[in-house]
Amino acid sequence: MKVNIKRIDSDFLLEAVNDTNNTLLMDGTESIGGHHKGFRPFQMLLAAVGGCSAIDVISILKKQRQEITSFEMEVDGDKQSVDSYSVYKRIEMHFKLEGKIDPEKALRAAKLSHDKYCSVSKALEHDSEIVLKVSVNGVLVEEEKV
Predict the structure, then answer these.
(1) Nearest partner of 98 among 77, 67, 129, judged by Cα
(2) Which alpha helices (DSSP H) does the chain contain, by range?
(3) Cβ 134 vs Cβ 140: under 8 Å
(4) Is the pTM of this model over 0.70?
């Protein structure tokens, strides 16, 4: 796996390109001269853990023949400064599913993603408390610290 990163303006706007030519933009914060034209690298961690878990949950539920008509997710992180860098002290992932879905299966899929399948979640869990919330058809199933 390889990603190439190239500076594309005179400040901090960067383009990352993976080995299949997919791209994403990254930028610095305004305080250092960024222009809000891309994800800040620390935000990408939230997107990465959310995307990894989303793929897992959708895959697990599809294999269980659950009918997902809508999938959304909110990932929120609380940063904590440690020396000259920051870590996410707490990450909350809220899976919002709609369709003909057994709520217990949805919750189990989220837990399986965190406990077994999502490599990004595993990489972050040492420094971060991860909280899973699952809602099915607008009803909160359960909130769980993992």
Answers:
(1) 67
(2) 41-63, 103-112, 119-124
(3) yes
(4) yes
